[in-house]
Amino acid sequence: MNIFEALRVSHDTQRALCARLLASPPDGPERHAIFLELKRELAAHETAEERCLYVPLFDHDSTVDASRHAIAEHHEMDEMVEDLEAKALNEPGWMAGAKKLCEKVEHHLREEETKFFQLAGKVLTATQKASLARDYEAEFLTQRTSD
Fold first, then answer.
1. CB contact at 8 A, 73 and 45
2. Exposed/middle/buried for 69, CB within 10 Å: 0-12, 13-18, 19+?
3. Could you give the percent of the chain with pLDDT greater than 70?
4. Is-above-0.90 flag for pTM?
5. DSSP states of the chain as a string?
6. Which of 3, 12, 31, 124 qualifies as a cystine partner to 128, CB 3.0-4.6 A?
7. pLDDT in tens, 96-117
8. Which domain, by its residues, includes 38?
9. Which of 60, 61, 73, 144 is nearest to 106 (CA)?
């Protein structure tokens, strides 16, 4: 497995959680559980991705700006999660905020998969891609179990 395949596993999970969240009923424990799972998935993915892909890509001029942009989007999503956490799940505007978060997540994932991965793929060797995948998976598991 290479780094891009490893990242897509979490990307697919994020998309599924967003779909479930947006389809969840406003009253009941399901929405809260899905939101918490999405929050954990995003946090673990962001940290592992930044440490195991973006940081190594700062060594290459052609991927510095894209890496900075992706990290900035992670920060935006973190702020959106914090805003949602500050509100009651059935409060007016909560679902609109959740929809904006999920749209931002989808935008970010699509941008990574259609643009960023291609840029990174040009500067990383096959050996690096495999090594970064192992590093990412280990870091992701560490982050997921540290809660």
1. no
2. middle
3. 99
4. yes
5. --HHHHHHHHHHHHHHHHHHHHHS-SSSHHHHHHHHHHHHHHHHHHHHHIIIIIHHHTTSHHHHHHHHHHHHHHHHHHHHHHHHHTS-TTSTTHHHHHHHHHHHHHHHHHHIIIIIHHHHHHHS-HHHHHHHHHHHHHHHHHHHH--
6. 124
7. 999 999 999 999 999 999 999 9
8. 3-145
9. 73
* Per-residue model confidence as pLDDT tens digits over 2-16: 999 999 999 999 999
Rounded to whole angstroms, the Cα distance separating 44 from 59 reads 23
The CATH number of whichever domain residue 42 belongs to comes to 1.20.120.520
3-state SS track over 31-49: HHHHHHHHHHHHHHHHHHH
Residue type at 14 in one-letter notation: Q
Q: Do residues 112 and 63 lie in contact, with contact meaning Cβ atoms separated by under 8 Å? A: no
